[in-house]
Each structure stands twice: as structure tokens, then as C-alpha cells.
Specification:
The protein is of the alpha+beta class. Helix content is 20%, strand content 34%. The protein is built from 6 helices and 15 strands. The protein has a 6-stranded mixed β-sheet. Strands 1, 4, 5 and 6 form a 4-stranded mixed β-sheet that branches. Strands 11-12-13 form a 3-stranded antiparallel β-sheet, with helices on one face. A hairpin with a 6-residue loop joins strand 2 (32-34) and strand 3 (41-43).
């Protein structure tokens, strides 16, 4: 029986026309599945479904997702990350910092990314907090002045005076949540091209059920950023909130709202 599948051109190019046509005809596609984004059941015979191809160095895994959760796309991941997903190995939800490419062509830096829920106007919002482990100089500069926040403001992030207002949406940026885990923060490509990873996890980051549920409800993630030494790895969300409020009061916090899953 034909399936209500969306197979993007990128996915078709990877798996070939013959395999793509078999999927669309229902030969190799499951009727029911667990959505690779929200982890709830789906049915490709009854609802629009995206094909998501995870590609490592040697392994490729085809997964399925509600079309309302994530578009059909190719997600390139490290081989060990993909093998870990296949084995369903969970990662710590508050990971060690990982490398990321800073906006505006800045040099590679190590960023800490922490997930948590932030209460704004009585609603819990899924949030990510980004903090470098060291000051970030402007590209090409020989100085030692920390330019992390100015670089982000130039990209459209806004200073946060307090945490009682939801930040505005930053166009062209998005947060990729797939296979129930956090994979990347995406930024616009040069010249209006395809999105590229601003931050990408070497190993997909596990988020809590509450965080994922809030993200899939709002389809939006709040991304906060602060200079090195402003936030730290807080073990509880109340302590994370206190650290964010202090950084905001000190003028050391910027933020933006980003759509979930992206448009790439």
C-alpha cells in the first residue's frame, strides 16, 4: 500500500531512485513507526511522514518522523555517534563542552551547551544555554578583548535585560532535534544557501522528556548565550535560572528564539 511519505531530493540522491520509489510504494517503509524527533508513534499510511537519513562514515540509517516534527533531510553525523544511536546508548544531558564554529567566520572555539526549561509568563520553554570556555576574540584581531556577545549581536541575537520576556525569533537559524536527541544549532549559509552547523554535537545530546515535550509543543527553542565564566555547568534548573538572571543583570546575556528542526 502506498505511504504518505516525503522523500527529499537530498535523501533520494543518497539512497537512489529505485529505493526511494520502493519506499513511496510501501514496499520497504513501515506502516507504524516511532517518530525520530518526538519519539511518539506515527503511521505512514494515515499521516504525512518524513524520511530522515542519518549518514556516518561507514553507516547509514533511515528513520521516519512526523512531517510536522521534522522535514525529510540528510543528517550527517560522526560514525561513533550513529553507532551509539543504533545501540540506543544514552548520553548525559549536561555534556562536556564540544567544538563549534562561531558566527562571522570566527576561529574554532569550545562551547558548553546546556539544556533546561525556563519559566516565562507562566509557561515552561525549552532552552539551550551556550557559553565558551574562554574569551573569544574577533576574527583577524590580535587583541584579547572578548567579542563573543558583539559577534552574536551582529548575527541578530538581542541583549537580555531580564528573563520575563520571550526573545524574538532569529530568522534563518534553527535547532535540530532528531532521534529524540539534540544534534545541532544551524545558522544561515553564505549567500542565502543551505543552513550550516554553527554548533554540532560530536555525540548527540540527550534531553529530558519534559524538554522534548515542551519543544514539540511550541516548535521553538530559546537559545541564550553568555561570555566565558558567566553561567557555568549548573546541576539544577533553578540554579541555571539564577545564573541566567545574574548574567542578564550584568549585561552579559543575549538570546534568540529558534524554530525546532530547521528548514534545511
Amino acid at each position: 500500500m502506498p505511504r504518505m511519505l516525503d522523500v527529499s531530493e537530498d535523501v533520494r540522491a543518497e539512497i537512489g531512485d529505485e529505493e526511494a520509489d520502493r519506499l513511496l510504494a510501501g514496499e520497504n517503509a513501515p506502516g507504524s513507526y516511532d517518530c525520530t524527533s518526538c519519539r511518539t508513534p506515527g503511521d505512514s499510511e494515515q499521516e504525512h511522514t518524513s524520511t530522515v537519513l542519518f549518514v556516518g562514515e561507514e553507516t547509514a540509517v533511515l528513520a521516519f518522523a512526523h512531517a510536522t516534527c521534522i522535514p525529510s533531510q540528510v543528517v550527517r553525523v560522526a560514525e561513533e555517534q550513529l553507532q551509539g544511536a543504533v545501540r540506543s546508548i544514552t548520553a548525559d544531558e549536561r555534556p562536556a563542552p564540544v567544538p563549534a564554529q562561531l558566527p562571522g567566520g570566527a576561529r574554532q572555539a569550545v562551547l558548553g551547551v546546556t539544556s533546561g526549561l525556563v519559566l516565562i509568563d507562566g509557561d515552561l520553554h525549552p532552552a539551550l544555554v551556550v557559553e565558551p570556555t574562554q574569551p573569544i576574540a574577533r576574527p583577524g584581531s590580535a587583541g584579547t578583548t572578548d567579542e563573543f556577545l558583539p559577534l552574536l549581536i551582529e548575527q541578530g541575537f538581542h541583549p537580555v535585560a531580564d528573563l520575563h520576556r520571550k526573545p524574538s525569533v532569529l530568522g534563518g537559524w534553527s535547532v535540530l532535534l532528531a532521534m529524540g536527541q539534540l544534534h545541532a544549532i544551524l545558522q544561515p549559509g553564505t549567500g542565502g544557501g543551505q543552513q550550516v552547523a554553527w554548533w554540532q554535537a560530536h555525540q548527540a545530546l540527550q534531553v529530558t522528556e519534559g524538554w522534548r515535550a515542551a519543544a514539540n509543543k511550541s516548535h521553538t527553542v530559546l537559545v541564550f548565550a553568555a561570555p566565558a565564566g558567566s553561567i557555568g555547568q549548573q546541576p539544577r534548573e533553578d540554579l541555571l535560572r539564577d545564573a541566567l538572571e545574574k548574567a542578564a543583570a550584568d549585561g552579559r546575556l543575549v538570546a534568540a528564539a529558534m524554530p525546532l528542526a530547521g528548514t534545511s
